[in-house]
User: Which sequence fits this backbone?
C-alpha cells in the first residue's frame, strides 16, 4: 500500500505492506477502536462493526489487489492549488 501526498512544495510517500495492514490480527483489534470512535459502544443507534466483517472485507480487498495491481483505492486532487492525495493498493 502506498499513500502519496503531493503539494506544491512537498511530496510525501508512505509505503506499508498491504498484508501487514490488512490481516486477521488487525481485523481482530480494529473493531474496538472503530466502535469507540464512532460511539457505537455507547449509542445503540449506530451499528457496530465486528471482526468477522472486517476479515471478510480484508480478504476481498487482498483478492482484488492480486488481480488488479495498479488499483487506486483513493485518488483526490484539488483544482486550483494542485494538491494530490493517492492511496494505491
Assistant:
Amino acid at each position: 500500500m502506498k499513500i502519496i501526498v503531493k503539494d506544491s512544495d512537498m511530496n510525501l510517500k508512505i509505503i506499508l505492506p498491504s498484508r501487514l495492514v490488512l490481516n486477521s490480527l488487525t481485523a481482530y483489534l480494529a473493531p474496538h477502536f472503530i466502535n469507540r470512535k464512532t460511539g457505537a459502544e455507547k449509542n445503540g443507534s449506530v451499528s457496530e462493526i465486528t471482526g468477522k466483517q472486517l476479515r471478510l472485507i480484508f480478504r476481498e480487498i487482498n483478492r482484488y489487489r492480486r488481480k488488479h495491481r495498479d488499483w487506486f483505492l483513493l485518488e483526490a486532487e484539488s483544482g486550483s492549488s494542485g494538491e494530490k492525495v493517492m492511496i494505491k493498493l
The CA atoms of residues 7 and 78 lie 10 Å apart. Helices lie at 18-21, 24-38, 51-67. The chain is about 40% helix and 25% strand. The mean pLDDT is 84.
